[in-house]
Amino acid sequence: MNDMSQTVTETESVVAAAEKRRQRIRSVAIALGLGFLVIMFYAATIVHLGANVANRAI
Amino acid sequence: MTTAGADAHSADTLKVLEPSVSDFVTLMKPRVMTLVVLTAVAGLLLAPGAIHPVIGLIAIIAISVGAGASGALNMWYDADIDQNMARTAARPIPRGRVTPDEALQFGGVLSVMSVLTLGVLVDWVAGALLAMTIFYYLFIYTMWLKRLTPQNIVVGGAAGAFPPMIGWAAVTGTVSVESILLFLIIFMWTPPHFWSLALLRSRDYERVGVPMLPVVAGPAETRKQILLYSIVLVPLAILPAFIGLGGITYGAASIVLGAGFLWFAFDVWRITEGREADKACKRLFWFSILYLYALFAILVVEGVMNRLLA
User: Fold this and answer.
1) Residue B82 belongs to a domain with what CATH number?
2) What average pLDDT is seen over chain A?
3) Closest-CA residue in chain A for B19?
4) A41 min Cα distance to partner chain B (Å)
């Protein structure tokens, strides 16, 4: 009986660890996606503004 | 069973189930995406007017991500039938590599982000067309018509035909006759392309209850429809050479490749029995891919040359 409950506990910990890994992979993917989006919006903004970036009043 | 044995087994199982980057790439149907990129680039380059290269690149990225997102949403909804078909059983959801919820979130987030990016940074008409494409592919084709009518591929083909129109709209902010012609070429190409494959996989479709034309109307009717659609497709694909969208190279290639397409379609209609019939279907399937890639690749090359020499 003890052996069985130990097996269940260990399986649960393996599942929890796997879930944690999944979450970590998901977080990294979201971070990379957002970073890419920021770069795209920055590049597009610079292109749209063009020379006006340099012609602003200081 | 020993504790260590159970632990090792669980760890092995979970290792297999853990998703990788390639699983999410697969969810986006990368082969379909390459065609989307090619046809969207063609629309973008052939459109009259100028677009900054950076904005053009952003438009292509947004269109291809939007197409990939709709592919992921399609795999999410079709997971139940995918697991019972040889062609699709190895997809990430049936294999347990990606959960349906993950695919839904992935596809949903990318859909929204791609439409907003295209709308805000490039053009709202293009953004609206991309949103319509995703909506059409998911709700009209995947959820509604695919399991309802043997004309599923005909209607669903429109979703795959929108990218050149979106690329065109990214430059001009409008939909024009020329972009509709590019749309029609892909739209008329889709049925003979998919039905030649469906003739080979009709048992799979029958088993999972998808009413593909060979299952509902039979192989003879499907072969006739393939030939009829091909007869309409080939002149349509030559037309860009006569309205200034394609040059001499395109004109010559569309005639030669069109003759090949008709030849293979005629073979599918003519040869109805045995292994030769299957071979004829395979030949048309593979040639149809070459046909569309080649035509749009020539349009892209000619578009680049025109812009460089202008």
Assistant:
1) 1.10.357.140
2) 81
3) A22
4) 7
